[in-house]
Amino acid sequence: MNGLLSPFVTKEIQCPACKRYHAQRFFRQRAFMSGEKESDQHVLDYRWLNERLEQVHPPFYILFHCPNCKYTDTSEDFARPTNSEAIPMVLRQFERMDRDGRAVVNILASRVDYENIQFESAICLHFLALFIHALAPEDIRDHYKIARLYLRTAWLYRECGGGQVSSQTNAVNHERAEAQISSILQITSEQESLLEQAEGVSAKMKQAIEERLVEMGRQSQSVNEYNYLTLCTQIELMQHRERELLGRIRKLCEQDATQLHLHGAEPSGSKEGADAESFADFLQRVKFLWPAAPLNEREAMEIAIAGFQKAISTDMRLSNHDTYTKIVLLNADLMVRCGNVAGALSMIGGIYKSAMDARSALQTQMRKADTSESDKRRIQGRMNRVGLTIEATSDFRRELLDMLLEQERPRIIAIMEENPGADVEALEEALLEGGVPRELARRIKESSGPLSDLRQSIRR
After folding, report:
1. Which percentage of the chain shows pLDDT scores above 70?
2. For the segment 344-402, what is each residue's pLDDT rounded down to a tens digit?
3. Which one, 30, 161, 256, 335, has least CB within 10 Å?
């Protein structure tokens, strides 16, 4: 360990399944702090508080694993299994597991190096925990916990560029990867420079178009006015979108470089030689035996979304308004990441209504004559939190509507052009019949909304 101290302390913990004791690792107190987080709570960096400690990747170490029976679970539930209502059934099903189930567990465990956990071991540990917890009947499963494990699996894939990592990674591959990342960053910088020049030219073009529109107005020849405005706006949107995409590419390169440095140039698998099975092939073999195994970030997130939706409707731990809000917002964010903006908008609509109902109920309590001053202060505090939820939800909803508008713009323009003289109600109906989401179709009723502005431009 190059003279550095271990970031862990070890303790003999009894396996909930086979009852044998094995050493499990706990992080030392105040070993590190989480840094910046993405919108789905994925931590981008960690700050180590003691420079004498060896630095490892904390997400690799959230699970405990029994080397005897292969039982794997989160550290808190492994050490205190009685704290969870679902675990007794999970343990019974694990004990009664059939030959096919035992084969999946043994295959996953065969790729776990528990003494030196890297990406491949971390993925297999998460798969083990997920497979074991899915042994319980559907109505007894801890869907919230399973969803969180799938989300953590998605984060692992994201950190490692999709997870298709070969077990034969070596110094040559490491250097090649560094060169590739450097090349992408250089090309990105060149493209950003070209975009900056293009934006300058576009500004001149916009000024020329505005001068032309003024002249057209004087001559009452406005047949091309809408075409000029639309094309100019589309160019601006394309440039804005390109700048956003270039920023995301740069961010991905930074994450890629960080993970490359984290994993180093040493082989991460336990097999050696030309005939060693790649980790990608290994995952495909696991997928054949266990179809619920996600092979990439997108698959893991989609399964997490389904799990969170089940938990939202059934898990009493989410009955608290603040917790419920947090999970719904997280799930909506995951939907956006998976391209389901309409689904995210529907979820946000639900939480907005829930928050409005909660505020109304709290206001009713506040107005009761027998409400004490201390209760009023408590109720006011809850009302303040609900108010923040309403504000955040409204902002998120607006962002989602704007995103959905960009997706649906070509269809909306086509429908509006087919119904140039339609009133607001008729046009809304035409948009709905054309497949435009209801939340978006309603925006034509907003006096200064984007669909109202677009409708006026088309009518001119």
Report:
1. 86
2. 988 888 777 777 888 888 888 888 888 888 888 888 888 888 888 888 788 888 888 88
3. 30
**Backbone phi and psi for residue 184, each to the nearest 5 degrees, phi listed first:** -60, -45
For residue 402, which of 251, 247, 241 has the smallest C-alpha distance? Answer: 241
Cα–Cα nearest to 91, from 59, 130, 132, 32 = 132
Question: Cα separation of 281 and 283, whole Å?
Answer: 5
Amino acid residing at 402 = D
Rounded Cα distance, 422 and 58, in Å: 59
**Looking at the DSSP assignment, which residues form a beta bridge with residue 9?**
26
- What is d(CA 293, CA 284) in angstroms, rounded to the nearest whole number? 9
Q: Which of 286, 401, 306 is nearest to 348 (CA)?
A: 401
Whole-angstrom distance, CA of residue 27 vs CA of residue 187: 41
Residues 361 and 170: their CA atoms lie apart, in Å, by 62
Write the pLDDT tens digit of every residue in 59-85: 999 999 999 999 999 999 999 998 888
Please tell me the pTM assigned to this model.
0.70
Residues 6+ apart with CB under 8 A from 248: none
Q: Two tokens at 317?
A: 């731990």
